[in-house]
Amino acid sequence: MASWGEIEQVAPDLAREARALLDAHVHKTIATLRADGSPRISGIEAKFVDADLWFGSMPGSRKGVDLARDPRFSLHSGSDDPPDWGGDAKLSGLAEAITDRDRKAAIFKAMGAEEVSPDSLLYRVDVRELAVTKLAAAGDELAIEWWSEAGGLRSLTRK
Asked: Domains in the chain, ordered, with CATH?
């Protein structure tokens, strides 16, 4: 299990690049798992607060139901269309549900939320994999760098 702050320590360049890509777009895409195991994608906002990545959800949302049953998810940063494409950040992990009302209120406030229902859902991201895909310097290959719990930091280029 890794907080965003732990990723910054073990893979600082990757974390810095991924964070810039994640911060570049307000709206991101999250994938959760339905009860039958099929994927569900939803729009979401995720923000960094206190060396962690957080996201929330409305009470009763389908993604909240999915995450209560199975906390695994994947998140995509969103990206620009070519020729302005600067890369994508993707991560997978577990969503840790935060239930303490005071902590939820403080994190939502730090995320910029004005009025939040006490029943709103809040999750801290437990990162299991993080990847950045972009064009290599020559512009004719993809450069992929990723970190995972099992394999550490790795990279490759692909035509």
From this structure: 4-130 (2.30.110.10)
